[in-house]
Amino acid sequence: MDHVIIKNVEKTFFNKEEKTSFTVFNDINLNIKKGEFLSLLGPSGCGKSTLLNIVAGLDKATNGVVQVGSKTITAPGPDRGVVFQEAALMPWLTVLENVMFGLKKKMSKGEAEKKALEYLKLVHLSKFIRSYPHELSGGMKQRVSIARALAMDPEILLMDEPFGALDEQTRSMLHKEVQFIWEQTGKTIIFVTHNIRESVILSDRIILMGTRPGGIIGEFPVNLARPRQPSSPEFVKLEEDIMKQLAGEIEKVMKEEMGDDYNSKKASLLYGSNRNMGEHI
Amino acid sequence: MFTSLQRISVGFALALIIGTALGILLGQSKLADETIGSLVIALQSIPSIVWLPIALLAFGQGSTAIIFIIVLGGTWAMTMNIRMGIKNVQPLLIRAARTMGYKGSELVWKVMLPASIPAALTGARLAWAFGWRALMAGELLGRGGLGRTLLDARDMFNMDLVIAIMVIISIIGLIVEYLVFAPLEKKVMTRWGLTK
Fold it and tell me: Once rounded to an integer, what is the mean pLDDT over residues A67-94?
């Protein structure tokens, strides 16, 4: 059963002053099954976050429709929980109050507190419920943010590079936690990342996105048994396949940002012809 | 002295309330900002004591006239700071709240206003300082309170009293700073994660 249906979606940004427009992607078609863990993988600027924001209802598609179940998305709603790259916690609220923030809208304070505590336990933060965000580490904040999104009991969890700003150890620990949560709750998860390994570890299916013109350039089902070992031959093979497809895209992005003299073969920009120190003195 | 304190409390409270309400309006609505906004800047540049002749005519010689100019002295600083605060709320916080079903006025009360507390504190400090100056100036010309006593003392060449009142004024300033604003600021700055 398809849970999320993305049909012919296009996003164009208009610049009113210069009367120019820029199309990030057009004609994106994607169906996501219920309970599926899907990754959107691509270089920066390919519009993967934009697509996620459209599903979240935070951005509007220029063309096309996004349907969740039988409902067409027009605005953000509590049926779609979002975890951002930064934790986006309210600094004036304690951890517990932050998780209760959305819950208080639909249930009594007592119930909200009970539910928040339950989800904070799920992300192993029961000890820190009275702390304020500024007292927590980056990984802990992100866990609060995950608990906050889950506590709303959304049908879909949207994660926008949630671990991009974290160090490697914290990240791999959170991978395990996200996987555990996904197995426990059976939620549909759309996960945006630019980290190939991360997407192979976590997802059922990887959608590869490219730039200029933006769009879906490939699809990789991941049929490896969980928990996945990044050192297993199948894992490495898949990683290499994805890397090969992405390499061209990455060069395109770099060329655009740095000009045509960029060359990925060797770091030719860094070296001048006269690079002997003190030669010209 | 207590007349003065009573006047400043009432005036300060009113300035905070009016300033906050106006600030939210200006921070929220582009139309209001472009119309009333420039009016607020114009009003801000008028020293509030200038209003006293009109205030005395309108409200008579009582406390009301002096409270009126205290309010005028403090409101604009408060308004401009709340406006800045509301405009500078991290867009990410608003987006996060929207995904949890918050919208409209709830967003203002639950997200934007709490997020602008640090700016509000700066505004309150300025409002207090302007209000206090307005009070003294107003009382020198009006009736009752510390300012009037100061002027009476001058008329009787009672310089001891003049100096004493000046000391009282500075002590009240110190008390308010160290017992109210400084602890409040410290708490807000740590809570909002603005100290390093």
Answer: 89
- What's chain A's average pLDDT? 85
pLDDT value of residue A215: 81
Q: Which of B100, B113, B194, B195 is the best substitution to test chain A (most A C-beta atoms within 10 A)?
A: B100
Which of residues 106 through 145 in chain B touch A, CB cutoff 8 A? 110-111, 114-115, 117
Q: Where are the domains positioned within chain B?
A: 2-191
Output the CATH code of domain B2-191. 1.10.3720.10
pTM (predicted TM-score)? 0.81
Cβ contact B191–A134 (<8 Å): yes
Residues of A in contact with B93 (CB under 8 A): 88, 90
Question: 3-state class of A208 per DSSP?
Answer: strand
pLDDT tens, position by position, A246-279 = 887 777 767 766 666 555 555 544 555 555 555 5
Contact: B101, A102; criterion CB under 8 Å: yes
| A71: its two tokens | 């409902």
User: Which sign does the torsion angle of CA A105, A111, A113, A118 carry?
Assistant: negative
Using the Cβ of A133 and the Cβ atoms of chain B, whether some distance falls under 8 Å is answered with yes
A76 to chain B, closest Cα gap in Å: 5
* DSSP string across A92-124: TS-HHHHHHHHHTTTS-HHHHHHHHHHHHHHTT
CB pairs under 8 A between A and B: 63
How far, CA to CA in Å, does A276 sit from each of A74, A267, A270? Answer: 61, 17, 13
- On the 0-12 / 13-18 / 19+ scale of CB atoms within 10 A, B112 is buried
Q: Which domains does chain A have, with CATH numbers?
A: 2-79+162-270 (3.40.50.300), 90-153 (1.20.1580.10)
Rounded Cα gap, residues A172 and A46, in angstroms: 25
Task: Determine the pLDDT at residue A273.
Answer: 52
Which among A179, A150, A149, A37 is positioned nearest to A88, based on CA atoms? A149
3-state secondary structure of A39: strand
For residues A186 and A192, what is the distance between their CA atoms, to the nearest angstrom? 18
pLDDT at B24: 93
Tell which wins on pLDDT, B162 or A273. B162
Contact between chains at A152 and B100 (C-beta distance less than 8 A)? yes
